[in-house]
Design brief:
binds uridine-5'-diphosphate; binds manganese (II) ion
């Protein structure tokens, strides 16, 4: 003690004072800076966000699996469960591709060879003609697996919450996730507990109060972080000098994406389906699984056993956690519409948003009950949700359908951005900020998360292939397709870059609220389900916006084989009517391709009034569908006619010619316009406004003004692959009557079709489609 006093005498005292003062100053300065980098995060830490690190460090196994060559577009995160006799990918793979088709059988969705060859994988190919809606090939029996009971899971249950960005040395630094292993969990044996769930788990946790996280804390965090945002923006430049762990270029007012994963209560590592693993059902439970399947058209029995706030593997590309986003992103209202949704999946959807969204960006969650009939979705749901101040429930007084239900949610939303989600999803870590960032950069961008697959059978979380985008095929059938390799190379794209998306899948996207209304929202004339994703996609692109898939934002979705709810009217007719509304408003001359792919019968159905929609398109000065095809979806094959040019008769070796209202034969001459005809999607043989038509019940023919709604003007014609290839078969006449040239070239009439009769064979100069 004396020694110390001696030191503190005279100049020594001054020196000691200066030294202590500078240490204190330095500490304060560092603390202030840390706060400014991390204010949101450190607040959240204070609010007991318990974290776990290195859960998914199984890189070597993942690499091995990648080498085995997973098929597009779905990869299993968890390979533990094999689907008996089918291989692990089979049914879910298909389901992912038929998302938004609600059970249309895949090979009935898209048609002809040309379309097939465009698709980069043979087994993606879908046929359409005629486009019937059929019940999916999903067999309940196949969905139910025989499994051995869990083994090897530690008996002691452990509570874990996850923030996969956290590393050992960074338990207090939430935003720096430089050591993060971003590849998905791959578990070769279901009994294996992922490495993140190990005994000394809690040793890594930040010092924090014990006990579960209360939702109230999240609310507090919101207020505190809001008030600090400005400060952070101001000190942003200073931050960049200190944060040498980060490879990202620091700009004022940005922070590293928050990889939050909060829970209300500590998680149980041994819970069924925890970490997105396949949950198993013992064989003696099969009957129960089957019994409850129809409640949601997925494994409801299993879903009910899985925690509503389970952890799922962080499947983002590695660089995503390093990305920076702006501090002052707009807030969002998350809108879930549901009709008779399964209790556990609805709750899991809501919890995934509450747990994994930065509180200050989540304005509210709006649940729109589209006149559900299930009892537990009434008072019981009100009571459950009352613990979350951010959740609001709106009840519709009659069934409105998905489209009008979304509009009802949007109408009361208070956030600057609307985020629509299906009611059976699981939002992944870091899902929200990358979406909002795109809108922040450009309010006309409409970002969609990557939609991953939550298996309808074992509820496992599966990641999908990179570079997938939503597209359509004729007749307006949604599908997924990989970006062409040349495009990826040309644009130097990495796996985390936003992907231009011609058509959104529909269920999951964010949009600036004002912009949504500027665009005229959805066509409120669309009923129940179907076609609304086409409508909003065409509208966005053609009227000045952009749709993007954001690989750093990922949300799991249960793809169901069938809609589990009832359609007030016939399902097929409802969807068809919606599609016709879309085609009539947005497709211009290309609507012929829509009708021409098996939808001729929709030409004269009642689709209601379109005046407002057509006016809207004019008012917004939207571009043409041709522009859309050329600029947004250039790899789409969309010939305006099926065939064109001269119409050559094989037997006569002459060409058809139309002169002064009469048809006759001439020596073929490409330079003569009178010899040019189109074979259209309406199946007309047409020159300008005149159509070649069978006449009456006899074997004559006539020239008539073309009229799309008149089936008697249509000819069935194929250039190959048909017993009557090259014939012109009158569609309206029974008993297969074909157009035949007289051997002298002076007559033209209908005769019974004969496959070898060359006078019944006609060739157009160019065929664009079969
Ligand atoms: N939905 C609704 N009313 C309807 C039909 C659907 O509120 O009349 C909801 C449904 O509960 C779900 C969302 O809209 O949350 C999308 O429907 P679904 O999941 O059946 O569409 P899919 O994923 O098959 O495209
Ligand atoms: Mn859905």
């Amino acid at each position: 003690m004396m020694k110390v006093r001696r030191y503190l005498r005279g100049s020594g005292r001054v020196l000691a004072f200066v030294f202590i003062a500078s240490v204190i100053w330095l500490l304060f300065d560092m603390a202030a800076l840390r706060l400014s980098i991390n204010d949101v995060n450190s607040q959240l830490l204070k609010e007991q966000v318990i974290r776990e690190r290195e859960i998914f460090k199984q890189q070597s196994r993942v690499t091995q699996l990648m080498k085995r060559g997973f098929k597009h577009p779905v990869q299993r995160v968890d390979l533990a469960v094999t689907h008996a006799g089918k291989g692990p990918l089979s049914s879910d793979n298909k389901l992912a591709q038929v998302y938004r088709q609600g059970g249309k059988k895949q090979d009935q969705m898209l048609g002809d060879k040309k379309i097939n060859s465009l698709h980069h994988q043979g087994d993606n190919l879908l046929k359409t003609d005629p486009p019937k809606y059929v019940v999916s090939e999903h067999k309940e029996g196949a969905a139910i697996q025989e499994v051995t009971p869990k083994q090897g899971v530690p008996a002691k249950k452990k509570a874990v919450n996850l923030d996969q960005n956290l590393t050992k040395s960074e338990t207090s630094r939430v935003i720096d996730g430089s050591n993060k292993v971003m590849l998905p969990v791959v578990v070769s044996n279901i009994t294996q507990v992922p490495p993140g769930v190990q005994k000394d788990k809690h040793a890594l946790l930040p010092t924090s109060k014990k006990g579960p996280i209360e939702t109230g804390d999240v609310q507090i965090a919101l207020d505190k972080t809001d008030s600090k945002r400005n400060k952070k923006v101001m000190t942003g430049a200073k931050v960049s000098q200190l944060d040498n762990n980060s490879t990202a270029v620091r700009k004022p007012g940005v922070h590293k994406v928050l990889s939050l994963d909060m829970t209300q209560a500590p998680r149980d590592a041994n819970a069924v389906g925890q970490f997105g693993q396949a949950a198993l059902v013992a064989s003696n439970e099969d009957a129960e699984v089957r019994k409850r399947w129809d409640e949601g058209h997925f494994n409801v029995y299993l879903s009910d056993q899985i925690p509503v706030d389970r952890a799922i593997p962080d499947t983002r590309p590695e660089m995503c956690a390093q990305n920076v986003v702006h501090d002052d992103l707009p807030s969002t209202s998350v809108i879930f519409c549901f009709v008779d949704e399964v209790w556990s999946t609805l709750l899991r959807s809501v919890h995934s948003v509450l747990n994994r969204s930065p509180p200050h960006l989540l304005k509210e969650i709006i649940l729109v009950d589209d006149f559900s009939t299930k009892d537990n979705l009434k008072e019981q749901l009100d009571a459950y949700m009352s613990q979350f101040p951010k959740v609001r429930i709106i009840r519709l007084k009659e069934r409105q359908g998905l489209i009008r239900a979304r509009l009802a949610g949007a109408a009361v939303a208070k956030g600057e951005v609307l985020t629509f989600l299906d009611s059976h999803v699981e939002c992944n870590v870091g899902w929200l900020e990358p979406l909002l960032e795109r809108i922040y950069l450009d309010r006309k961008k409409v970002p969609c998360p990557v939609i991953e697959v939550v298996s309808d059978k074992d509820m496992s979380y599966m990641l999908v292939d990179n570079f997938q985008r939503g597209i359509f095929k004729w007749p307006l059938v949604f599908g997924w397709s990989a970006l062409p390799d040349e495009y990826i190379k040309k644009n130097n794209m990495t796996v985390s870059d936003p992907i231009r998306c011609p058509v959104m899948a529909g269920g999951l996207f964010s949009i600036d609220k004002k912009y949504f209304y500027e665009l005229g929202s959805y066509d409120p004339g669309l009923d129940v389900w179907g076609g609304e994703n086409m409508e909003i996609s065409f509208k966005i692109w053609m009227c000045g916006g952009e749709i993007e898939i954001i690989p750093c934002s990922r949300v799991g979705h249960i793809f169901r084989g069938q809609n589990p709810y009832k359609f007030p009217k016939d399902r097929q007719k409802t969807v068809e009517r919606n599609l016709v509304r879309v085609a009539e408003v947005w497709l211009d001359e290309y609507k012929d391709l829509f009708y021409g792919h098996g939808y001729h019968h929709l030409l004269d159905i009642n689709i209601g009034n379109l005046t407002e929609q057509i006016e809207l398109r004019k008012r917004l000065k939207c571009k043409s569908f041709k522009w859309y095809l050329e600029n947004v979806y250039p790899d789409m094959d969309a010939p305006l006619v099926k065939a064109e040019g001269l119409v050559f008769n094989r037997g006569l070796r002459k060409c058809l010619s139309l002169q002064k209202g009469f048809l006759l034969f001439e020596i073929c001459d490409l330079s003569k316009q009178s010899q040019h005809f189109n074979y259209t999607w309406m199946r007309h043989v047409r020159q300008q406004d005149l159509c070649v038509a069978p006449q009456g019940k006899g074997n004559g023919f006539a020239l008539q003004l073309c009229d799309n709604t008149k089936p008697e003007l249509r000819w069935f014609h194929k250039s190959s692959n048909s017993a009557l290839a090259e014939h012109l078969i009158a569609e309206f006449v029974s008993h297969h009557m074909c157009l035949e040239a007289g051997p002298q070239g002076d007559t033209l009439r209908l005769n019974p079709c004969e496959s070898r009769n060359t006078f019944q064979k006609w060739q157009f100069t160019h065929y664009h489609a079969q």
